[in-house]
Amino acid sequence: MTTSAAASLDASATPTGAASDPASLSQKSKPAFGILAGISSSHMINDMMQSLILAMYPILKGEFSLSFTQIGLITLTYQLTASLLQPLVGLFTDRRPQPYSLPFGMMSTLIGLMLLAFAPSFGFVLLAAAFVGIGSSIFHPESSRIARLASGGQHGFAQSVFQVGGNTGTAIGPLLAAAVIVPFGQRSVAWFGLAALLGIVLLLQVSRWYAAHHVATAGRKKPATAAPYPPKVVMGAIAVLLVLIFSKYFYVAGISSFYTFYLMERFGLTVQNAQLHLFFFLFASALGTLLGGPVGDRIGRKPVIWVSILGVAPFALLLPHADLFWTTALTVVIGLVLSSAFSAILVYAQELMPGKVGMVSGLFFGFAFGMGGLGAAVLGIFADHTSIAFVYQTIAYLPLLGVVAALLPKGTRRD
User: Fold this and answer.
1) Would you say 315 and 368 are in contact if contact means Cβ atoms under 8 Å apart?
2) What is the CATH number of domain 32-217+226-407?
3) In 10 A of CB 208, how many CB atoms?
4) Could you tell me the residue ranges of all domains in the chain?
5) pLDDT tops 70 at residue 247
6) Which of these, 393, 174, 390, lies nearest to 274 by C-alpha position?
7) Where does the pLDDT of residue 5 fall: very low under 50, low under 70, confident under 90, or very high at 90 and above?
8) Which residues of 255-281 are buried (b: 16+ CB within 10 A; e: fewer)?
9) In this structure, are residues 339 and 167 in contact, taking their beta carbons and an 8 Å threshold?
10) pTM exceeds 0.70
11) Dihedral angle, C-alpha 314, 315, 321, 327, nearest 10 °
12) Do residues 87 and 359 make contact, with C-beta atoms less than 8 angstroms apart?
């Protein structure tokens, strides 16, 4: 980032007067658009590099003669290292904020990318996936906290801006893989390290802004915030939200990990054409993420949660029986609707447990990644013993779990 660009980012993000307090910054000031743009762009770079692993599955399968079970293990390794560490990172940073941890997280992802480029065996591929997962475990809890801090009270909007960066990065990964990695091979992944270096520069600027606000408010007594419901109700609501996350990410694992193989097996597409169709799904997911948060700010979180999970069920049930055109159309609708859930779920959970933004963010990001990894591993084994088509017929029922949203608490608060 140039000096002028950094200055512009800081200028657009720096509040004045009383707004320098994080509580008032979150509730009274306008959104810090420069900071939101910075973390969203960094999220795009982070998740783009992660999606390269998914996009490379056909290449890795051929290079190392992998089974679908081993393909699932790659996703499981990445997702577990991310999911197990994220709640711990979030809990620690709730007590002791670490503004400059973000560039270190991106550095871990960069190391994983370099290992992936030069991996001589399946074991090194797993090691590369683990480093990428560790990077995510550091990046997401603190970035989510910064998004809330920079939201100006528009929490759903801020989370959507943050999330859409990640979804956009995930979407363009297959396109970049088709344009660069497929024709030039595994080692061409190393060129994407330049994007990681850009991400480190961006995150240094975001971390400087975050550190300045943390130092300015470190000695101030923070106002106490009470949970909106009794502890038992809060814990029950958190459990319901985690069931919804399980439904969403177990299903998404079947799409993101095996969609290219499904298209190649059922419709005879080439690797590059199949990755283009994967891009359509992932781009729709990015658009849905962008819409979900602001809609939740306007009409409430629960209606968005209801529609985004349960509403996708008819399309998921039709998908295994569709031709190529309708398969693409249905996956676009599924991506658009289903992806709108996460921002609403995360903000709803943060409002259930005020003062624990890092821990809640780490828990939900971590659980989402864990369910995605577990889903990829289980579905990979299932595909080896049956077929990918049968896997798609089976997971089509998962969105029906959205009915548990009826158990979320009712009250006078706008939800």
Assistant:
1) no
2) 1.20.1250.20
3) 14
4) 32-217+226-407
5) yes
6) 174
7) very low
8) bbbbbbbbbbebeebebbebbbbbbbb
9) yes
10) no
11) 170
12) yes
